[in-house]
Amino acid sequence: MEMRKIQLVGGRSYAVSLPKDWITRNRLKAQDVIYFSDDSTGSMVMSATPSSMPKKALEIDIDSVDLIYELLFLCYIKNIDTVRFHATKIPYEKMKKVRETLKYLEGYDITHETESVIEISFLFKEINITMPKILQRMVYMLKTMCVSLESKDSLALEEIEMTLDKLSHLSTRIIFGCTASIEARKINAISHPEDLFFVEDMVKKLENVGDLLYGFKDTSLSAKEIDTVKNIIYAIEGSIFKSFNVPHAKSLLNGIKFPKSKDSDYELEKMMDLASDILDNITMIEFHKIYFK
Prior knowledge:
Blueprint: E1 7-9, E2 13-15, H1 20-25, E3 35-38, E4 44-47, E5 57-61, H2 68-77, E6 82-86, H3 92-102, E7 108-113, E8 117-122, H4 131-151, H5 154-179, H6 182-187, H7 195-214, H8 223-240, H9 246-254, H10 265-291
Parallel strand pairs: 5-6
Antiparallel strand pairs: 1-2, 3-4, 6-8, 7-8
Helix pairs in contact: 2-3, 4-5, 4-7, 4-8, 5-7, 7-10, 8-9, 8-10, 9-10
C-alpha cells in the first residue's frame, strides 16, 4: 500500500499525486481523464476507464428473453435508467408483457416504440424521491384504505393496493442504490449501512398491512374493527414520524382491545404483529444513532 499526502493548491483546491507505476501500467498521460466513484464503505475507487462506473443503460435482444417481468424488475432495482429491447419485429405477446410489467414499476415508462424497438426509461431521475417520502406516502395510503373500507369502495382499495406495491418496488430500487453510495444514504436519511435492512423490512411490513386491508374488500367490518385498524396505523405513523417515541407506540398497541369477530380476528392479530415488527425496526435504527455513532 502506498500513501500520498493531500496538497492544498491555490488556497482553494486539493490535489494528490498518482503513483507513476499505475500511470504507466494503464498507459495514461497528461490531460487523460480518470474516473472516480464512492464504494459502499466510503472509499474512493479510481479507474482508468469508465467500465467500473455503474451501468445506466442496457440493450437487449427481446427474442433471447423469456422472463420479461423478472429481467425488467432486476434492471429497475439495479438503477438501470434506460432499457432498450430490440428485434426484427417484437412479438405481440412480449410487447404485452412489457406493458403489463410497467404497471408495477413506478417511474419506468415507454419513451420510444416502433415495431422493432421498445425503449423504457426511468422518468424520476431529476425528482427528489427519498425513503422518508416513500414511507410517508405508504402510511398515508394505509389511512386512505381505511376510508375506502368505510365507504365500501373496492375499486379504490384495489388501486391503492397496487400503488403500495409500486412504492415497495421503488423503495427497493432506492435501497439498492444506497448499498453502493454514501451520498445516496445521506440523501435518504440513512445513517448506517446496516439500517438499509431495517428500512427495507419496514417497507415490506407496510406493504403487508396494505395486503391485509385489501383482503377486507369483501368483508363488512364493524365500526369497532375499523377503529382498531386506525389505531394500529396511528401507532405506526407516530413512531415513524417521531410524533411520539417507540415505547409510547408499543403501549398504544398493547392497549388496543380486539372486537369479537370470527371474520377479522386473524387479520387484525397479524396486523398487530406487523406493526410490532415495524416498531422494532425503528428501535434498531434509533439504537444505531445513539450507541454506534
